[in-house]
């Protein structure tokens, strides 16, 4: 089957999931409106680059497929010169760069929460790595005299405006300017090919190392601001609320809590926010340290090579931090041995790891755990809602109402039989 045929089949699969129920009767109405498709299979996590056809997809409602030549991105706010950027200008009038990025849905792993949380019940399949090509936002902002001082933000608004309960459901995310200037791009290609509609054609924001919710698809507006989307100017902007997906959704909080809206925050690392006195309920910005075994498959029966070795292979990542240690356990986490990294090494992209294992015949539970450059290591399990979770993640990952930013290692265990 050709790549184009695989791509078309994948697109049909995505379209067929408009009424996706995620395999459970408890999914909320919000989840029913999502278009989602996960990684094709676990072997995705035994390879460094994810083919476009196998890259996970998640967005709300309809898939836009506009005419590329007529698409514009409005640049407004604290700039010397406002502009409606056409795609030709974005592609041709500024430098072109390619960045590697492990994109992970903030709800990846939500399906392991007990009791269950709402929305799409992802297990391990909402993470993928690709090369994204586009224009550095630093270049565009400099050309238009944008304010880029400490404390400024760039808000991206998506062009999809589905109607929900009689109101427009607008998607806007605010990204701190420091991150924007560091490595963010307006992406128009993935793995050397034009963006497919389900990945935001013709252009999306790409925020390397941060949860996928920040990489707004079908970008139609960029606004330079001295705060996030917050306050009356954004809760009722031309009759619409632009703040929901920044200030209410994609926040980590217990059940029944409505997070306080903040004009600005100074701590962007998701893990650090738990330890911060500034933020009561973390925003899902930077990805937590995490790992996934790609081989052997869960439930597989495997045999050693002639030398008696089974090579356990997987991937580990830590957002825009480096992942520095990978460990593998073959007895469900009681004992650990260090694995080794190999293959490509790019900022904001996962590392392949291997562990040579010489087992006897029998049944085994394989798990992996990663540690990042700041010494933060994956916790073992997800807490119960009423349990106090350690802010440093040393024991339990905190159960939260949205099921966000999960990185415990035991839920991702792989059961295998060696013969």
In short:
This protein has 8 helices and 25 strands.
Protein model, in words:
It is built from eight helices and 25 strands. With 419 residues, it is α+β, with helices and mostly antiparallel strands. The model is unreliable at 9-31 and 388-393 (pLDDT under 50). The strands form seven sheets. It has a five-stranded mixed β-sheet with strand order 4-3-14-7-10.
Supply database-style keywords:
alpha+beta; 419 residues; 8 helices; 5-stranded antiparallel sheet; single chain
Shape: globular
Strand order of the largest sheet: 4-3-14-7-10
Rounded mean pLDDT is: 90
Strand composition percent: 25-35%
Q: How many E-type strands?
A: 25
Question: Can you lay out the helices and strands and say which pair or pack?
Answer:
Blueprint: H1 3-15, H2 29-32, E1 34-37, E2 57-60, E3 72-77, E4 83-86, H3 87-92, E5 97-104, E6 127-136, H4 137-143, E7 153-158, E8 163-164, E9 167-168, E10 172-176, H5 177-183, E11 185-190, E12 193-194, E13 204-206, E14 219-225, H6 232-235, H7 244-248, H8 270-275, E15 290-295, E16 301-302, E17 310-317, E18 323-329, E19 337-338, E20 340-342, E21 351-357, E22 362-372, E23 381-382, E24 396-397, E25 414-418
Parallel strand pairs: 3-14, 16-25, 23-24
Antiparallel strand pairs: 1-2, 3-4, 5-6, 6-11, 7-10, 7-14, 8-9, 11-12, 11-13, 15-17, 17-21, 18-19, 18-22, 20-21, 22-25
